């Protein structure tokens, strides 16, 4: 019995040291990243772009669609989403594979600002959490959402919600239907798969998932949900 207690204690110590090492490594990665390029400097290319669309000029249905499918507690939560992390772990264990992530919208923005196209291990993922906290000190949630929506790639050469809305739908991003909003909100998850030129049918399936989340979260009525499912966009 003493042997088992000692073994358990040793495992706990090893886990504690491992977590401490990874956290410290991630923190150093974060410090190196923001020392090389501050958060305010990193966002400048997006917010100063002539095609940048402010939060007030983005359709509310698009905002709801993104929040529903990417980070449902985005506007009410500060910092890391532990609830989403635990849910993702349980769902992935149940499925036996990675079927759900736990990154918040702010974390995804941090990744795009600093580590897009770069190899990402545990240290970079932990660094993203530290960057996330910094971002929430400098920007409001509305400002972070606007940066996120404007930096995403929507396939077919369209960067940002402005280009995507005008390119796919020939309309401004502040005047979208629920169906259009859900369709665009789903593309950045895998733009190569969901871009309309080659993956319209897949994009429609993704749209159905987004609409389902919106309906489940009470963002749209059942009638709006059904109407959006049958609305033709092309």
Task: Please give a structural write-up.
This protein is 68% helix and 0% strand. The protein is mainly alpha-helical. The protein has a single domain (18-230), classed as Penicillin binding protein transpeptidase fold. Mean pLDDT is 86; it is low at 88-93 and 97-102.
Sum up the structure in keywords.
Penicillin binding protein transpeptidase fold, 12 helices, single chain, globular, mainly alpha, 234 residues
Brief summary:
This protein has 234 residues and is an all-alpha fold. It has twelve helices and no strands. It starts with a helix and ends with a helix.
The CATH homology group name: Biosynthetic peptidoglycan transglycosylase-like
CATH architecture classification? Orthogonal Bundle
- SSE string, helices as H and strands as E: HHHHHHHHHHHH
Biggest pleated sheet = none
Strand content: under 5%
Rough outline = globular
Extract low-pLDDT stretches: 88-93, 97-102
The number of domains = 1
Gyration radius, rounded: 20 Å
Q: Quote the CATH topology.
A: Penicillin binding protein transpeptidase fold
- Mean pLDDT across residues: 86
Write the layout of secondary structure elements.
Blueprint: H1 2-36, H2 39-47, H3 60-70, H4 82-95, H5 105-114, H6 122-138, H7 141-151, H8 160-169, H9 178-186, H10 191-194, H11 196-216, H12 222-230
């Amino acid at each position: 019995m003493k042997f088992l207690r000692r073994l358990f204690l040793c495992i706990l110590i090893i886990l504690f040291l491992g977590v401490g090492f990874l956290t410290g490594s991630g923190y150093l990665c974060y410090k190196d990243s923001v020392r090389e390029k501050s958060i305010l400097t990193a966002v400048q290319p997006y917010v100063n772009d002539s095609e940048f669309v402010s939060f007030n000029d983005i359709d509310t249905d698009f905002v709801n669609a993104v929040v529903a499918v990417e980070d449902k507690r985005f506007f009410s939560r500060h910092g890391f989403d532990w609830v989403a992390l635990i849910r993702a772990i349980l769902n992935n264990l149940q499925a036996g594979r990675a079927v759900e992530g736990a990154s918040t919208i702010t974390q995804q923005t941090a990744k795009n600002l600093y580590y897009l196209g770069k190899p990402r291990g545990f240290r970079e993922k932990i660094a993203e959490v530290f960057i996330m906290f910094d971002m929430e000190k400098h920007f409001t949630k509305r400002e972070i959402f606007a940066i996120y929506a404007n930096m995403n790639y929507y396939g077919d050469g369209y960067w940002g919600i402005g280009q995507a809305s005008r390119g796919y739908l020939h309309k401004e991003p502040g005047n979208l239907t629920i169906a259009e909003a859900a369709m665009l909100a789903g593309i950045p998850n895998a733009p190569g798969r969901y871009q309309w030129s080659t993956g319209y049918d897949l994009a429609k399936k993704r749209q159905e998932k987004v609409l389902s989340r919106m309906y489940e979260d009470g963002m749209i009525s059942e009638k709006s949900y059904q109407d959006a499912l049958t609305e033709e966009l092309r």
